[in-house]
Amino acid sequence: MDTKGYEIIVGLEVHCELNTKSKIYCSCRNAFGAEVNSQCCPICMGMPGTLPTLNEKVVHYAVKMGYALNCSINPISKQDRKNYFYPDLPKAYQISQFDIPLCENGYLDILVDGQEKRIGVTRIHIEEDAGKLIHDDSFSGTLVDFNRCGVPLIEIVSEPDLRSSAEAKAYLDTIREIVIYLGISDGKMQEGSIRCDINVSVHKPGEPFGTRVEMKNVNTFSGAVRAIEYEAARQIEVLENGGTISQETRRWDDLKNCNFLLRSKEDAQDYRYFPEPDLSTIVLDEETLSELKASIPELPNKKVVRYMKELSIPEEDARLLVESIEKSAYFEEIIAAGKIVPKDASNWVLGGISRVINETGKSIKEIGIPAAHMAQLIEMLEKKEISSSAGNTVFEEMLKSDKAPKDIVKEKGLAQVSDNSVLQAIVDEVAAANQKSIDDYRGGKTNALGFLVGQCMKASKGKGNPAIMREMLLKILEG
Ligand SMILES: [Zn+2]
Known about the structure:
Blueprint: E1 7-17, H1 56-68, E2 72-73, E3 76-77, E4 80-83, E5 93-96, E6 103-112, E7 115-128, E8 132-135, E9 142-145, E10 152-158, H2 165-182, E11 194-203, E12 213-218, H3 221-240, E13 248-253, E14 258-264, E15 274-275, E16 282-283, H4 286-294, H5 300-311, H6 315-323, H7 325-337, H8 342-360, H9 364-367, H10 371-382, H11 388-400, H12 405-412, H13 420-433, H14 435-442, H15 448-459, H16 466-478
Parallel strand pairs: 12-13
Antiparallel strand pairs: 1-10, 1-11, 2-6, 3-16, 4-5, 4-15, 6-7, 7-10, 8-9, 11-12, 13-14
Helix pairs in contact: 2-3, 5-6, 6-8, 7-8, 7-10, 10-11, 13-15, 13-16, 14-15, 15-16
């Protein structure tokens, strides 16, 4: 988009549903897709006289995310009531965290155009989700599904460090990958597991930040990209026409691809936060914290950079590997099992193995090829002990049996022939039988060489070393 010299400033508030078994303050099941109003009880429906009990897992999951995003963890934090009325919130307040969140002052490194950029993370706090309003043409009015009431959320608030919709998209993708790696959320956007509010302002570089506008209700990442571009363009147009931006909240409409005014000027004091009297402070001892910290695996954003820098895997391939915990683990097992070029292992995981996954729906574990066998196959290919077509034959056989590739090669007689006298005989025979192709080549049709190499491969039953035979053919053609 043409920003007419303005810089776009974006901050994100990401809400992520945690995949704990039960809800945050009651024992109701926390699962998506159940029958309407089948997963609720007096506590999550806010009946008078009920008391909430905090689910410890929610705190642990949030702390894990805090460590993953390099935050400092507050060993003592508290919960607060955020007061507002909406039909999907039966208590008329949401239990959240206000002045002392679980995690603060972190950062996340994202990868944009091959460059790492550090985005500040202001805070991460826990809170409960609200219910869902159902509007349907089959009945008049609106109904409420309370299943989502009390589903645990973490809210991750970023600093206004993002400068484009592409950076925002990279940030959201990275957050999603991390929650999946940590196993704390399914990250399914189509089920609303990750949603975000977006703050956008524009200013001329060197001047103070402009007034920010908040957009609510963005629940796809592509929607976030369009919402940012739409809002920035709207603000630039207002400013260019001599107008001013007012602080307001706008609702993003993903279908109409535009936003509209929801309410003007909204600040924290409007919610009249106050400490939740029914819950005690959250206290985390040192032992629990260090256990949680130790449980954090290598994170996907760091893994991608390591694959690129240390293993010379191209960015796109590195991302594809890392996207799947299973694929990246398998890839690492293969390169640990043999002395092979990592890129070759990556090609097999993203090639042959991924094809089988797509065709059969099986997991790598179910496909059942030991990493050591893959390493052995790749090693034979790298040493040119077998041709690439023989490599494919061996791979197909490995899918059917648990024999080692070396044994398959022996059994099927697939070892590549590099013996010059044997190959020369094949090449001479092919040359004698294809005088027309030789004439074509000498007449300038150089692709006749490919045909002749193919004939040689056929004559050698796929076992001849194609590079050597190619050289031999060239000698005849140009001699
Ligand atoms: Zn409940």
